[in-house]
């Protein structure tokens, strides 16, 4: 299978596991899990043809670790980024002193006015390294990176979670915790 086909299937999985499971009539439980065999069957009925071997390959090799299997490997979910209400079961954790948020330059003024909002997602996504934040920002045009005073936020009773793929999650970042990266 070509890289282009793998990317197409990965984007399809993001759609149905993060945003629109109804597209292929799968059910996500309260924690975002769905049955692997049901997913494969309904995806193939929808016209997106792949098997368990390809699914295993996508989960294992996705550079952003977007998807995860449960311990018994019979269920799959997206690691974060849902626009539908899912309880991922992560526990509040103390973040590092600084986290990073990558965005496009066109969004900088809006963020400086309102803070970083989760908008249609369940959480704000933050990176532990600047390189990842730059890559995220590049998806939105010329990249811009904010430093987030995450340890201070945590001290001020903001909750932080870390997803299975290492993305830090929080509900909102007020402007007072934002520093423009030099």
TrEMBL record:
- The residues forming a coiled coil are none
Signal peptide bounds = none
Query: Which UniProt keyword terms apply here?
Result: NAD, Transferase
Enzyme Commission number, as recorded: 2.7.1.-
Which InterPro entries did the record assign?
Answer: Ptrans_KptA/Tpt1 (IPR002745), RNA_2'-PTrans_C (IPR042081), RNA_2'-PTrans_KptA (IPR022928), RNA_2'-PTrans_N (IPR042080)
Q: Which GO terms describe its molecular function?
A: NAD+ poly-ADP-ribosyltransferase activity; tRNA 2'-phosphotransferase activity
Recorded hits in Pfam families, A to Z, give: PTS_2-RNA
Which biological processes are named by the entry's GO terms?
tRNA splicing, via endonucleolytic cleavage and ligation
- Where on the tree of life does the source sit, at the highest rank? Bacteria
Q: Which Gene3D superfamilies match?
A: 3.20.170.30, RNA 2'-phosphotransferase, Tpt1/KptA family, N-terminal domain
Family affiliation: Belongs to the KptA/TPT1 family.
- Briefly, what is this protein's role? Removes the 2'-phosphate from RNA via an intermediate in which the phosphate is ADP-ribosylated by NAD followed by a presumed transesterification to release the RNA and generate ADP-ribose 1''-2''-cyclic phosphate (APPR>P). May function as an ADP-ribosylase.
Q: What NCBIfam families does the database record attribute to this sequence?
A: PRK00819.1-4
**What's the protein called, per UniProt?**
Probable RNA 2'-phosphotransferase
Say which species the protein is native to.
Solitalea longa
Taxonomic lineage from the root: Bacteria, Pseudomonadati, Bacteroidota, Sphingobacteriia, Sphingobacteriales
Report which gene this protein is encoded by.
kptA
């Amino acid at each position: 299978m070509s890289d282009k086909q793998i990317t197409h299937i990965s984007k399809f999985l993001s759609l149905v596991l993060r945003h629109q499971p109804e597209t292929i009539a799968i059910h996500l439980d309260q924690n975002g899990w769905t049955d692997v065999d049901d997913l494969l069957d309904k995806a193939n009925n929808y016209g997106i043809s792949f098997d368990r071997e390809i699914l295993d390959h996508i989960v294992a090799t996705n550079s952003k670790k977007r998807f995860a299997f449960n311990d018994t490997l019979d269920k799959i979910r997206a690691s974060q980024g849902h626009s539908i209400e899912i309880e991922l079961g992560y526990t509040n954790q103390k973040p590092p002193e600084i986290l990073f948020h990558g965005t496009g330059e066109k969004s900088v003024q809006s963020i400086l006015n309102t803070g970083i909002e989760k908008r249609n997602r369940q959480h704000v996504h933050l990176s532990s390294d600047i390189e990842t934040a730059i890559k995220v920002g590049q998806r939105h045009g010329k990249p811009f990176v904010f430093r987030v005073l995450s340890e201070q936020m945590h001290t001020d009773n903001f909750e932080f979670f870390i997803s299975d793929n290492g993305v830090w999650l929080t509900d909102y970042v007020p402007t007072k915790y934002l520093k423009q990266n030099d």
